[in-house]
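dumping this here so i dont lose it
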């Protein structure tokens, strides 16, 4: 039996790695040129374009933020595998349909539905966390993260190339087909030994926060997830427009925008395991401090450059700070949460990440409208600086990193 269980969790990890890779790719493939697609759907001024782009991005994340906890509770009652199937099939249909819209409001409506069906990645994380032996769970979750991050990485480049070779519309259809493959793999090859939590048990828990030893720390960490993601996403709606401006509208804009959107992912992939290992050895707090300081220093100059190459260099550097910040916050959340609340905490973390994406997209669009593109980068640097000061003030463990190391 033990042997079978060994096999089962390894197979789950392999299939879900592929699933999160394709889901990450499907999600990010359309990101770099969504604002160029919006531009194709009507005649807009520069101000209208940045605002519509911001709303088109933000609406998905608004819905994810609201429905994630609901799906999280349902996953604890009905199982994570069911949630994986719901998500992959729903997203396949909705993203495929985006290739056939005729105006910006239809696109916004479908982006709204996309938010309803999201949740493949946190459910895959929760399933792997629950099914893997505790001793191996850190490593397994680390491996799973590389699936999502690699997909996120390749997505924009592949999307940019597909948009250049075929059309933007075809890219949506192809992404839908890929997600159907994920649905088929998840349905046939993922196995879950599931013990449902009944509605009564969920009600008996009362306020979930009471189950945590240090609820303040959990809330501060979730807020940090939101702010880090807000920084990442304030740039997303304008990146292809900023690249187009830096290239003076000449050359393969979607391909370059795709590459620049992917660069932070490459450096996250390279740096996260090394920084995680360093954190285990010398103290997680050191990695956290480095991540924030480095991010602030790398965001400031991005608004004042005139070369698309320099933008690429700085975006690559941002990925190193992401490689420090996201895993550290997740590790701190996992270590400070009871095991039976893994699903709940992962769904909260997704909610806060989605709120960050939504606020980032909307504020990015607004600030680009008021202060031009350069203001967005300055705003992001200042927000991260504030977040770091908040952590320093509210989480004493971070201040004592010298003694702990």
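and the seq i came up w/
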């Amino acid at each position: 039996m033990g042997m079978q269980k060994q096999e089962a969790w390894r197979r789950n990890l392999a299939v879900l790695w592929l699933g999160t890779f394709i889901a990450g790719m499907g999600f990010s493939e359309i990101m770099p040129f969504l604002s160029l697609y919006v531009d194709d759907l009507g005649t807009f001024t520069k101000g209208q374009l940045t605002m519509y782009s911001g709303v088109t991005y933000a609406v998905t994340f608004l819905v994810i933020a609201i429905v994630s906890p609901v799906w999280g509770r349902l996953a604890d009652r009905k199982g994570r595998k069911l949630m994986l199937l719901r998500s992959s099939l729903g997203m396949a249909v909705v993203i495929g349909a985006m290739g056939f819209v005729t105006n910006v409001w239809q696109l916004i409506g479908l982006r709204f539905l996309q938010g309803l069906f999201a949740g493949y990645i946190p459910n895959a994380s929760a399933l792997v966390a629950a099914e893997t032996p505790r001793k191996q769970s850190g490593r397994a979750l680390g491996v799973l993260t590389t699936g999502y991050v690699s997909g996120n990485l390749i997505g924009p480049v592949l999307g940019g190339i597909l948009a250049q070779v075929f059309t933007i519309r075809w890219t949506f259809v192809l992404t839908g087909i890929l997600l159907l493959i994920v649905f088929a793999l998840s349905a046939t090859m993922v196995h879950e030994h599931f013990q449902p939590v009944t509605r009564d048990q969920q009600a008996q828990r009362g306020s979930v926060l009471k189950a945590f030893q240090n609820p303040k720390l959990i809330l501060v960490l979730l807020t940090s997830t939101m702010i880090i993601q807000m920084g990442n996403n304030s740039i997303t709606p304008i990146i292809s427009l900023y690249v187009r401006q830096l290239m003076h509208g000449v050359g393969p804009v979607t391909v370059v925008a795709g590459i620049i959107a992917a660069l932070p992912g490459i450096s996250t992939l390279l740096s996260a395991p090394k920084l995680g290992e360093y954190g285990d050895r010398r103290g997680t707090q050191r990695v956290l401090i480095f991540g924030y300081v480095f991010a602030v220093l790398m965001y400031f100059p991005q608004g004042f450059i005139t070369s698309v190459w320099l933008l690429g260099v700085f975006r690559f550097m941002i990925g190193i700070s992401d490689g420090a910040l996201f895993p550290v916050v997740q590790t701190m959340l996992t270590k400070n949460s009871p095991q039976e609340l893994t699903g709940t905490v992962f769904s909260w973390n997704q909610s806060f990440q989605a709120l960050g994406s939504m606020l980032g997209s909307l504020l990015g669009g607004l600030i680009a409208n008021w202060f031009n593109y350069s203001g967005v980068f300055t705003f992001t640097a200042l927000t991260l600086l504030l977040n770091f000061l908040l952590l320093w003030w509210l989480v004493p463990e971070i201040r004592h990193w010298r003694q702990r190391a």
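The chain has a mean pLDDT of 81.
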